[in-house]
Amino acid sequence: MKKKFTFPLAYQILAGLILGVIVGAVFYGNPAVETYLQPLGTIFLNMIKMIVVPIIVSTLIVGVAGTGDIKQLGKLGGKSMIYFQLVSMIAIIVGLGAANIFKPGEGLDLSSLTKSDINQYVETSKEVQDDGVIDIIVGIVPSNIIESMAEGNMLPIIFFSVLFGLGVAAVGERGKPVLAFFQGVADVMFWVTNLIMRFAPFGVFGLIGVTVSKFGLESLIPLGKLMILVYAAMVFFVVVILGIIAKIVGINIFQIIKVLKDELLLAYSTSSSETVLPRIMEKMEKFGCPKDVVSFVIPTGYSFNLDGSTLYQAIAAIFIAQMYGIDLSIYEQITLVLVLMVTSNGIAGVPGVSFVVLLATLGTVGIPLEGLAFIAGIDRLLDMARTAVNVVGNALATVVMSKWEGRFDTKKQKNYFRSIERAV
Q1: Which of 17, 124, 243, 371 is the right S-S partner for 253, CB 3.0 to 4.6 Å?
Q2: In terms of DSSP H, where are the helices of 70-153?
């Protein structure tokens, strides 16, 4: 029997990525590219945003109601936050170490660089700086959950869904119809997700085509050393640091990467971890993680466990200091680590989050904020790498928490991985 030809989603996305680069390079500087291709990217991103909130709400309510134990949930939350902060600190230290050893900003001719407009990030940064830690904590409790859902504010949505799930569990038999409804919503939304993913290659093509047509490939050359260092540091962090963490809990990091290959390529191409959130939740549950752990850890990690972003922020901060010939002392670098840790927590929903965090941080150690304007042109390409690392970090965090809770299903994991290997 003749084998039927298949063109897997990963290859479709890769084809969209390559075609987008080619079209963007050929038509560099042509505004028509943005006019005709941007809608493809915008429609795809909007479709993903459309389903994220219903999926998080329904899966979290079902997961929490299934557990029904507020003490267990509290323990899970506490353990998750300890893990998130620890790994984020390691990511920042890796970034600082890489920038200090390889010195990507030294000897750079500022006249060879193009300045980009960063005013929108400056305004957002002022808003973030006005909100202290207390404001972030207060903001977790929504005054209007519908408004929070409309704005896509993850932390209030998680808070409400956890309380609602506990309420469903508490009322016993009377809560079963409610639980069945949200289970049905979750099942339907995952079906919708798989349908939307068929449009992913077109969305990637549009987003990449517009990016390359705006900035061109020649803008990469002066900042080539920074780009290479960021990508190399990201690979080191995933393979070595996350690899060691995975080994400690009895998992191979390359297994997780293989399971999420489609999602990683999509996250990389779109620079948006939100595009793959529904699929990661679905796959990590199949991989052996309990539903309530998956539905709590992954959305929370999107706000507090941005390993790729924090690593990049550390490198970028030292790069700008080196570019201006500023030699930061050990004390100033420790200050930078602590400020980055505090500033990067809980603002994942802010547009251009890494830029906003850097703007809110650089001034504390005397680094000129205008230095960010020089790297804004390649930020999209760096964002692609840090988004992919964020996805791997959150997937691993789910496994770590499941193992820590003693609830990881190893048999389910082996069966699922074997099924993936057979499908390749």
Answers
A1: 243
A2: 70-102, 119-130, 133-139, 145-151
